[in-house]
């Protein structure tokens, strides 16, 4: 079945349900987020917190944490749910980025570091070497920090994945984002099975690394489809899963189809825990890197 194109901005605005009270967050205070923002600007670093308009930016910046966005700030894919800018030919990689990122980790005194990237389909390795360089730079200056990578699918190139994994991150995160029925509409340049294969490849060849994935809800999926995705991820022995409400960044993006209730998020969590995930974070405001520092505790409880 061919999925219909996204509705016009006017139609989307008229059909989008009103935002419920459980999704309202206080605007971050400048005096709380300013020091982190200033440090990032000083070191010429990007964060997904800023580029993707994350609703938790106030909480995370106030706690002195951030998810670093490397190889950005522009992306070679134009996913209609995402607020990161699309360009066909991004700027060249910055060889000084790994060093500056490691300096930020040191200055923020981070104990758990999350590094993600835009898609760089213009690069032969999809940016794998830059991921590895960033991991090694952090390991050198902050050997006690645990490192979580949130990677793209590398267009299914397992050699690129191996190049990234050679740097030995503690956690490898790759989001499936949505249910397979909606991929053509939500993630047109992605492939559901390709994402599952990447996660399975990590578990097969790097069994000491914790694997993680996540998805958004509220894009037109049914609850049963979410449960099936959880089953698919667990069959690949994924350890951690995150589920959060999709919030449209603006009128040019996909509209919200529904606001999933906190009770349904609880059901997703309970089902995932019954399947055997080590951790299921399922709340309306959950994002893939939200409260990622909890992974450090999980690693102590389930050592490998």
Question: What is shown here, in short?
Answer:
The protein is α/β, with parallel strands linked by helices and 304 residues long. It contains 12 helices and 8 strands.
The amount of helix comes to: 25-40%
For CATH, the homologous superfamily is named as Aldolase class I
How many angstroms does the end-to-end distance come to?
44 Å
CATH architecture: Alpha-Beta Barrel
Identify low-pLDDT runs: 7-13, 27-32
- Report the strand count: 8
* Rg over C-alpha atoms, rounded to the nearest angstrom: 18 Å
Q: How many helix segments?
A: 12
What would the average pLDDT be, to the nearest integer?
87
Taking strands numbered 1, 2, ... along the chain, how are they ordered across the largest sheet? 1-2-3-4-5-6-7-8
* CATH class descriptor: Alpha Beta
Overall number of structural domains: 1
Structural class: alpha/beta
* Largest sheet report: 8 strands, mixed
Strand content: 5-15%
How does this structure look, described?
This protein is of the alpha/beta class. The protein has a single domain (about 25-300), classed as Aldolase class I (TIM Barrel, Alpha-Beta Barrel). It is about 40% helix and about 10% strand. The chain has an 8-stranded mixed sheet, sandwiched between helices. β2, α5 (about 95-110) and β3 (about 110-115) form a beta-alpha-beta unit. The longest helix is centred in the middle third of the chain and has 14 residues, at about 130-140. The termini are far apart.
